[in-house]
Design goal:
Length: 546
């Protein structure tokens, strides 16, 4: 069973053009090399940078001479600095009157005075820097946009890192390097190996002389440059206030599952402590403000999620010819979907027969961004939904939205899995009434969890499908990640039916990021891992490279 990309984008509320293959991404990249003094750069870094450049050219990325990337726009720059000053003083007065902290997205005068005046690199051009640069002379100081110019920094391998370093050592080192160099991606290089760090909290280690070096650049680096981490904003949702009371009895079993599972998952050590942005060693107020911009005002980062999909009504499968007659005023035979009063209907082929089904509405309870994943408070739980191609957020009735209350980076991936679960449950219910997955879905919903590690080969019980190992290495919040999740999940339906598999759930592998797993309940999942502690760990130990 296949769904084309336009249908997937419509379902997942993705409006922008999305390239999903590394070769497409490479072709759209514009990259420049930041000026450097070769006499101050170690030879191995220069050799490595040259290899990167050759690989980018091989895959048709556009390498732009640095001088050609610069533009003069002093009026725009001064206007924004003035706007920053006015905003600071206005919001400072409002915060004082309301006795609140000022929004970290509002720059303070020290940050504004630190903005470099002069020509800037045009928006949308990625920058590769080689070696160390001093504060106020970093690539970030020369960008037109602090969030729309991706920066990649090539440095020497830190002394404290080696092939035996664990997840936490890599994680702490990467955050320090991001802060020190104000960069989105770090390529740490030794004489024999190199590591790719980005905000995914991943740390793939490659051999310098690996015969697949160019493929690692194509599948690993290029997608991370083209599809940067992009946290969702409130403006991406239909926000409904006072629509969700977490104390209502209808949510009790799901919220109890989320909260009680936290105690089990704490023992598994799959959810590392979050990092507060105030703890990071930024060199000046400007760089700290840029950090807040990058996180859309979040107070920090926490990795992974625990979520519970609420049961929803399954859709009926209508034979193609019958659907064609029933919906003839809306039907578009040359398309894979059509809409009736904003409701989305899919046209799908299953076991050589065509059917039509309505995309089910879905709702999920999950944690706000930054909440401690294993010490869950009821007011940290939010309700998100996907209805008629619109992302919806229901704010808890007693919660006041502030700078700490933000949707998870993984929101669209969570919703992608949830709608995929509802479609699979609907299809299996048609072909195999009473099957385990559909029955559990109707009665209990589905648990969805994510952490930055992988399962040991053949560690899962029979009935679980594993997919995604061959996908490009994109960040969790990129639209590509949500598209891969739904596209490939739906592909599995054909094999499930052909092989008469007692389907129980699936594991979506996100290479050099982690996994999303769909299980019966969070407590069942936590207990399964607690009773089999060696089957999954943080980091890339069990990742199969493809």
């Amino acid at each position: 069973m296949l769904i084309n990309q336009e249908a997937i984008k419509t379902i997942l509320d993705i409006e922008e053009k999305v390239h999903t293959t590394p070769s497409e991404m490479a072709d759209k990249l514009n990259i420049t090399f930041f000026p450097y003094d070769k006499n101050k750069i170690k030879p191995e870094l220069l050799v490595f940078a040259r290899k990167i450049e050759q690989a980018l050219l091989k895959y048709k990325a556009n390498i732009v001479p640095f001088e050609e990337t610069l533009e003069s726009n002093y009026l725009f720059l001064f206007r924004n600095i003035l706007k920053g000053f006015l905003s600071y003083f206005f919001y400072h007065i409002i915060a004082f009157i309301k006795n609140e902290k000022i929004d970290p997205l509002i720059p303070n005068p020290k940050a504004l005075f630190s903005i470099k005046i002069g020509k800037k690199i045009k928006k949308g051009i990625a920058i590769i820097a080689i070696g160390e640069n001093k504060s106020r002379n970093l690539p970030i100081d020369y960008t037109s946009s602090f969030v729309k110019n991706q920066i990649i920094t090539i440095i020497e391998m830190p002394n404290e890192i080696n092939s035996d370093s664990d997840f936490h050592a890599h994680f702490d080192t990467a955050l320090k390097l991001f802060t020190k160099h104000m960069t989105h991606i770090v390529l740490a290089v030794s004489k024999t190996k190199w590591i790719l760090y980005n905000m995914n909290a991943s740390h793939p280690i490659y051999e310098i002389d690996d015969k697949d070096f160019d493929l690692h650049i194509l599948n690993g680096l290029i997608p991370k440059i083209y599809a940067p981490i992009k946290p969702p904003k409130f403006s991406d949702f239909i926000i409904r206030n006072d629509k969700f009371n977490p104390n209502n009895s209808e949510y009790k079993i799901y919220i109890d599952d989320i909260i009680s599972s936290g105690y089990i998952f704490e023992k598994t050590k799959l959810y590392p402590p979050g990092k507060n942005i105030e703890e990071l060693p930024f060199k000046n107020d400007l760089y700290k403000w840029i950090g807040h911009l990058f996180l859309d005002g979040r107070n920090g980062m926490s990795y992974g999620f625990l979520a519970r999909q609420i049961p929803s009504e399954l859709s009926s499968l209508i034979p193609f010819e019958q659907a064609k007659e029933k919906y003839r005023d809306y039907f578009q035979e040359d398309n894979s979907y059509f809409m009736i009063n904003k409701e989305i209907y899919l046209i799908v082929e299953i076991l050589n027969e065509k059917y039509c089904l309505k995309v089910p509405d879905i709702w999920v309870l999950t944690q706000r961004s930054g909440a401690k994943k294993t010490e869950i408070k009821i007011n940290d739980i939010i309700k998100i939904g996907l209805v008629n191609g619109n992302m919806i957020m229901d704010i808890p009735i007693v919660t006041k939205i502030n700078t700490n209350y933000k949707p998870s980076f993984d929101t669209r991936v969570i919703l992608s899995h949830a709608v995929g679960n509802a479609i699979i449950a609907s299809v299996l219910n048609h072909f195999n009434p009473g099957n385990s997955f559909s029955e559990n879905f109707k009665k209990n919903g589905i648990a969805i969890a994510h952490w930055h590690g992988y399962f040991k080969d053949k560690a899962l019980p029979d009935g679980f499908v594993v997919y995604g190992e061959e996908n490009p290495h994109v960040p969790c919040s990129a639209p590509q990640s949500a598209i891969y999740a739904l596209r490939d999940k739906i592909k599995n339906i054909e094999d499930i039916l052909k092989n008469n598999l007692n389907y129980l759930g699936d594991v979506h592998v996100e290479p050099n990021h982690g996994i999303n797993i769909n299980f019966s309940t969070l407590n069942n999942l936590g207990s399964f891992i607690e009773n089999n502690p060696e089957i999954t760990v943080l980091g890339n130990k069990y990742l199969k490279y493809k």
